[in-house]
Amino acid sequence: MRIAILTGGGDCPGLNAVIRAVVRRTVQSHKGEVYGISDGWAGMVEGRLMPLDLKAVSGILPKGGTMLGTSRTNPFKIPGGVDRIMENIRKFGVDALIAVGGEDTLGVAARLHDMGVKVVGVPKTIDNDLSGTEYTFGFDTAINVATDAIDRLHTTAESHNRVMVVEVMGRHAGWIAVESGIAGGADVVLIPEMPISVEEVCNHLKKRHERGKNFSIVVVAEGARFQDKDQVRTIVQDEKVDAFGHVRLGGIGAILAQAIEERTGYESRYTVLGHIQRGGTPSAFDRVLGTRFGVAAADLAVKGEYGKMVGLRGNKIEAVWLKEAVGKLKTVDMELYEIASVFFG
Ligand code: F6P
């Protein structure tokens, strides 16, 4: 059995744990072999595959990023892209593909499966916005980085009597904001799922100042939206869309900090955590989850359960249909947001 594995979309901590687990499980338990595909779907289109043996994956478990490289390539947008994937599957004698990615990479996998490709998915993203799994790997590391940043911003906010606005990633879901906000003790958390007015934010901060707290931490998701009268506004860095139709989000932190200072008179600063949330060594949780996902994905491929993704449900790894996973974005559970909001103001 020859399995080929690719990592697509934005990188995240834990990708190497998955690759290592797929290779170890396939080679040692199933006596099969694994090929690594470079740079996501781009490498599959261009036929950039190489054998991955046990030596190749030795020592990669604690390393961030992906040893295979990644890209946001959509083969359906490349003329002849899908045909070239089919040709390369034949040329390299690939019996099954394992695609490790988020909604875009796995969306491509689901479409290819409909066309007869034998593919298994593994859910990856710091955004935690994939359905069919309670957690994606990468998310835990991202919220730990964000929580550490919030802790650090607390001490400087307190020393200077300032409002600190922290902009975190997450695209159109507020998971990173809400979980790091709860863990870091944020005084307001803004998420895309719950448009909020600047006035409301300022009221929370004023309430806090009235009870003697002269500094505050506001966590804002990059995709959070302002409710201006009857209009909802998303802030983008660039209107240009990528191969999957996404704009580049970002910039809401700066706008919010300025608006808060203007309305309240409280000195405000902002910090954009950006790709720091995605880089570096994976947390223990992400190493364990990535390893469990990798072993389970190799098993699914060997059993011939294609068109499925491994997912975490009730702390068990289960196989879910790729179509179910990519069909709908998993947005923040409002009960969790309600818990965060207990601490606003
Ligand atoms: O999906 C992961 C993510 O990090 C989002 O949170 C963010 O909006 C986006 O990727 C950034 O993408 P890029 O690395 O292309 O700037």
**Number of extended strands:** 15
Report the β-strand fraction as a percent range: 15-25%
Mean pLDDT: 97
Q: Which residue ranges are poorly predicted, with pLDDT under 50 across at least 5 consecutive positions?
A: none
By CATH, the topology of the largest domain is Rossmann fold
Main beta sheet: 7 strands, mixed
Oligomer: single chain
The geometry reads as elongated
Strand order of the largest sheet: 3-2-1-4-5-14-15
What does this structure look like?
α6 packs parallel to α11 (334-341). β1, α1 and β2 form a beta-alpha-beta unit. The longest helix has 22 residues, at 139-160. This protein folds into two domains: 2-138 and 282-327, 3-Layer(aba) Sandwich (Rossmann fold), CATH 3.40.50; 141-279, 3-Layer(aba) Sandwich (Rossmann fold). It contains eleven helices and 15 strands. 39% of the residues lie in helices and 21% in strands. It is α/β, with parallel strands linked by helices. The model has no long low-confidence stretch (mean pLDDT 97). The radius of gyration is 22 Å and the shape is elongated.
Summary?
The chain is built from eleven helices and 15 strands.
Q: What brief labels describe this structure?
A:
345 residues, alpha/beta, Rossmann fold, 15 strands, 21% strand
Show the helix and strand layout.
Blueprint: E1 2-7, H1 15-29, E2 33-37, H2 41-46, E3 49-52, H3 81-91, E4 96-101, H4 103-114, E5 119-123, H5 139-160, E6 163-168, H6 175-184, E7 188-190, H7 198-210, E8 216-221, E9 225-228, E10 231-234, E11 236-238, E12 248-249, H8 252-264, E13 268-272, H9 284-303, E14 308-313, E15 316-321, H10 322-327, H11 334-341
Helix pairs in contact: 1-9, 5-6, 6-11, 7-8
6-O-phosphono-beta-D-fructofuranose is lined by residues 10, 102, 125-127, 169-171, 222, 249, 278.
